[in-house]
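forwarding from the other thread:

> can someone predict this with iron/sulfur cluster?

sure thing
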Amino acid sequence: MTTGIWILGDQLSLNQAALQQADLNAAIPIVLIESLAHIQARPYHRQKLVLIWSAMRHFAQELQESGWSVTYIQAAANFIDPLKQWIQEHEITQLQVMKPSDRPLFQMIQDSDLPCEIQWIPNNHFLWSEADFCQWASNRKRLLMEDFYREGRKRFDILMAADEPLGGRWNFDKENRQPPKGKLNTPAALWFEPDEITQAVIQQVKELEISLYGQIEPFQWGVTGDQALQVLSHFSEHRLPTFGPYQDAMVTGEDTLWHGLLSPYLNLGLLQPLEVLERIELAHANRDLPLNSVEGFIRQVLGWREYMRGLYVFLDSDYPERNWFQHIQPLPDFFWDAQQTDMNCLHQTLNQVERSGYTHHIQRLMILANFALIAGLSPQEVENWFHAAFIDAYDWVMQTNVIGMGLFADGGVLASKPYAASANYINKMSDYCQSCPYDHRDRTGEKACPFNVFYWDFLDRHRGQLADLGRMGLVLSHLNKMSEEELKLIRQSAQKWRDRL
Ligand SMILES: Cc1cc2nc3c(=O)[nH]c(=O)nc-3n(C[C@H](O)[C@H](O)[C@H](O)COP(=O)(O)OP(=O)(O)OC[C@H]3O[C@@H](n4cnc5c(N)ncnc54)[C@H](O)[C@@H]3O)c2cc1C
Ligand code: SF4
């Protein structure tokens, strides 16, 4: 039997499962494939393409330098044709592949009628195995993130003092989520100059004649495991101590605040979740960092990230088609071009996505997804856009975050109520409303903020469904107190806005 290993573009770690169980001395052939056809299925952010291709090329070089025998293919076709050719050339009888994180890619390979046997190696880029998550999730009435997170803390012994959570509490949210006030003195993010390999990819992407999105330069992302580790160290040193308090703040000109900027690297395999958690825990132990920040961050990686991926595996494959509110409004053009909207919060956030492919969580959730939810945009069009626009977007992370958390299109599988908010929240947590032509206090009239109009219209349109959720009583009671005259104006204004979108 001749074995070969195919390493996918988001499996760029020397510890990835297929490599880990292979013998370096056995001269096992390894292949990595860039496919031009694959990236034409939907638009990509230019920087995401540069990031993935450059990281793959760097990783292939690293493998070669470590003694592996590597073939690197740049194909115009889809993955399968060049893969078949490589299998035949190397007379491979068994192809080993670490199971892809994304279901469509797994399915495509399964259906591809390769001229050899495929051995799937369980994916080790997450802390929870697929089987362990499914076991945890089965027979539960509610799949609460909080329950899952606590189980993860105990199971992986993170921030624990024997059987109790360190500091006596599981959650320090009350000390976090502060609005931005005064001068923030944010630490600079760690960025990198493109090296020769990256410059060559940038040039190649510039010359592609396919539909792409976003600015390609300045390209500042790290493209190697070593650079990803530097970003982690930089975060732990300079940003982690204040991560918690301003986790939800949004400030013009402050694209990254105290956030980790780690998702592009984690999702490519350049960082492993356990090494991130252990480094953060060690930093806390050595430097006595504020527990609200440390726990707040650990909750993101050990809690939310693992939970979202676990749900993706556990839920039915029809999940991305869900549309609980039956929203069908097409995606407005301004999502592809920030210049086309004068709503300042959207303008600033979309502009940032164009420039870098990145915004932090609250901009994604409470500006972009919130607008899409209350304006009634089609969840599938919105998911497609998020997938195309973000540097860290993959099927496994996008579906539950957009369809579930952002748009509540799953009817409450993972959130107990929709993350819908008016301008009140945006004004409290950001400085966007201060430079906006709309008035964040108004819900009717010429200058009324569209978030207010759509928010109340959304509650009104779906009041029956929302009342059944149980946790919407307070906001629905405000709606019930609104005069019929005001509601009529809001409905008219929402319709006008929808016609304009
Ligand atoms: C509508 C929507 C779309 C999103 N799309 C993506 C996406 O395409 N790719 C992606 O990795 N994350 C996505 N997220 C989750 C989260 O917003 C990003 O992981 C985070 O903003 C990445 O920036 P950071 O590394 O600076 O994060 P930090 O704020 O520093 O958080 C640390 C890490 O926690 C993890 N994390 C936190 N929340 C989540 C979550 N909800 N799901 C998965 N991981 C989480 C990430 O790995 C992140 O790097 C989305 C969230 C929403 C609401
Ligand atoms: S006023 Fe409304 S549209 Fe303008 S920034 Fe505030 S929330 Fe956004």
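The chain has 20 helices and nine strands. thats all i got for now
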